[in-house]
Amino acid sequence: MRIGVIGAGGVGGAFAARLQQAGHDVSIAARSWTADAIATDGVQLTGEFGSFTARFDAVSTVLPAGVELALLATKVHDAKLALTANRERLRGVPLVVMQNGLGGLDIAARVLGGAHELFGALTLFAVTNRGQGRIHVTAGGETFLGAGREAPSPSALAIAAELDRGLPTRAIENFRGAMWTKLLINHVNAIPAITGCSVQEVSADPALCRILTRSMRETIAVGRAIGVRFAPLGKLGVVDIRALEHLPLGLAMAVPRRLGASFGPVPNYASTLQSIRRGQQTEIDELNGRVAALGRQHGVPTPVNRMLTAFVHRVERTGEFLSPGVLSRLVER
Ligand SMILES: NC(=O)C1=CN([C@@H]2O[C@H](COP(=O)(O)OP(=O)(O)OC[C@H]3O[C@@H](n4cnc5c(N)ncnc54)[C@H](OP(=O)(O)O)[C@@H]3O)[C@@H](O)[C@H]2O)C=CC1
Ligand SMILES: CC(C)(CO)C(=O)C(=O)O
Q: Family assignment (predicted)?
């Protein structure tokens, strides 16, 4: 199949390399400096999904004509520009939006039109983008594909099967509920971005894990106020979400502690801290920031998500991390 990947960073680069290796005809649209590096040296994949270099004939700032399926793997805030540049090439081509947060599919529908065939994909593997096509997968995990609230359509099943040839991918029902569960999982992103600690260090540290748990509880409350039906996703089952919601805080902390440990022994710094280290804008406004905005809209208090969002922006501006002790004093005072 002719597959076009827009945004060849961590997630896009890993999929591009593995799909090409599996025999698909993959082309890449990247920003010029990354496109130049990949055109010369290919995508160099290391870690959990194997170590090899994938070379691509078509690497440019826009996709070539003739693509049959497209994947969008930019950060959410880069989606509008990337899709606008590729709009002509995407006419009639199903698009899979591989992004965290809740907003990517809406942006794609606005740019490409509400009738465009759109799917979302939630990726549970953890990947470090070392720049210029060098991609290191620190923990394996499945990708879940879908759209809306219903059971997967025949085309969702067919697309998931094509992607599954490269990396483990499954079509699921209640994709909207799964997006919210992934948003909960991505609460592991903010504290590493504020402190410089890994996800595993945060979840193993009682004071930091307490903040993480509080932020997740706020998000469940916001989701409930909106009528979200959280779907089980990877290591976070419906029972875990109920435990997070209803158990006393000290006991509920077991859920994020397990979630952090599930990323395995290699430190996972998550995509938000990686953006800071590369001097790029983070997606925090689409993660904890989105929860805070929805909380305001629906009258649900979200003080921890508001603070975490503000602290990530502070680190973005200053480049200075807060120590775990200072962060917990500021949040818990
Ligand atoms: N990293 C992870 O472990 C995971 C990330 N995610 C989610 O996946 C999505 C992608 O994240 P991730 O791969 O980490 O991000 P990266 O920043 O590593 O990759 C994004 C890529 O998009 C490129 N890009 C930006 N604008 C354009 C454009 N206009 N045209 C073409 N390419 C463009 C960037 O280019 P440049 O190289 O120039 O910066 C970069 O290579 C995010 O929503 C993230 O939250 C989901 C699960 C796991
Ligand atoms: C799953 C996780 C937390 C992997 O690191 C991720 O989605 C991210 O880093 O944004």
A: Belongs to the ketopantoate reductase family.
ipTM of the complex as predicted: 0.99
| Helices of type H across 124-268 | 154-164, 175-185, 190-195, 199-204, 206-226, 238-246, 249-252, 254-261
Among all ligands shown, which has an atom nearest to the Cα of 29? 1
**Separation of alpha carbons 43 and 24, rounded Å:** 15
For ligand 2, the distance from its centroid to the CA atom of residue 92, given in whole angstroms, is 31
Q: All domains of the chain, ordered by start, with CATH? A: 2-173 (3.40.50.720), 179-332 (1.10.1040.10)
Q: What is the pLDDT of residues 258-297, one digit of tens each?
A: 999 999 999 999 999 999 999 999 999 999 999 999 999 9
Query: Does pLDDT of 329 surpass 90?
Result: yes
Res. 318 pLDDT band, cuts 50 70 90? very high
Tokens of 225: 């106020």
DSSP 120: E
